[in-house]
Specification:
Blueprint lengths: L4 E2 L3 E2 L9 H10 L2 H12 L6 E5 L5 H9 L4 E6 L2 H14 L4 E4 L12 E7 L7 H14 E12 L9 H6 L2 H4 L6 H8 L3 E11 L2 E9 L4
Parallel strand pairs: 3-4, 3-6, 4-5, 6-7
Antiparallel strand pairs: 1-2, 7-9, 8-9
Helix pairs in contact: 3-4
Length: 219
């Protein structure tokens, strides 16, 4: 598939194609995704001392924002794309914040059990192959502490299929299809999360987006 890089595994770059990566941040800002990320961060209710994972951190906008707003937390960003991670490192350096950036894959998280207080994911889940989405959520569940929370923002919602020209242009249907209807909530329940819910959905130029929250059981 064009635009999919080869490392130990395949992955889809942040903008869908490698050549679009330099345009990713300005386009995201233009279409209002930063406002949705602000809502995600507010909903996560991060507290001092928390350890946070930004899964699929891409070019580092969210990890940098978390650390600037919450300087007394430990922030880790994970992404399989070394080019995106290099941009993330430069962004964090310009913002004068210290974050940890790791290269890795969401279905095999390189962290111990019960390690994080929060896992945040912003427009990453639709990049995961359909056969790996359930495994990704199981890994998140494994690495979250009891009572820890997953906050996930992506294309999706209660409609049965993706709508919007640009979202279909940049991302193939087979990656998007499990983001719509109740599939994400089903995956969360199957992974062992409690109180999974769609907090809200919004219509954007790129298509419908949704914000999900799930909590790990405490017993």
């Amino acid at each position: 598939m064009s635009g999919v890089n080869q490392t130990a595994k395949n992955y889809l770059p942040a903008a869908g194609q490698d050549w679009l990566l330099p345009l990713y941040d300005p386009v995201v800002k233009l279409i209002g995704i930063d406002r949705l990320r602000n809502a995600l961060l507010t909903g996560a209710a991060i507290q001092p001392g928390h350890r946070i994972l930004d899964m699929g951190c891409g070019t580092g906008t969210l990890v940098t924002l978390i650390k600037r707003r919450c300087p007394d937390v430990e922030v880790i960003g994970l992404d399989p794309d070394p080019k995106a991670l290099a941009r993330a490192a430069r962004k964090a350096s310009r913002a004068n914040v210290a974050v940890q950036l790791d290269q890795g894959f969401s279905n095999e998280l390189p962290y111990p059990n019960s390690f994080f207080d929060r896992v945040l994911s912003s427009f990453m889940f639709h990049h995961v192959e359909p056969g790996q989405k359930a495994a990704t959520l199981r890994e998140i569940r494994r690495t979250l502490k009891p009572g820890g929370e997953l906050h996930l923002l992506d294309f999706g919602g209660s409609t049965v299929e993706p709508k919007g020209f640009l979202v279909r242009l940049l991302h193939s249907h087979h990656r998007l299809k499990d983001n719509f209807g109740d599939r994400i909530l089903v995956f969360m329940a199957q992974a062992g999360f409690a109180n999974s819910q769609e907090v809200f959905h919004r219509h954007t130029f790129f298509g419908q987006t949704a914000y999900y929250r799930a909590i790990t059981p405490t017993d």
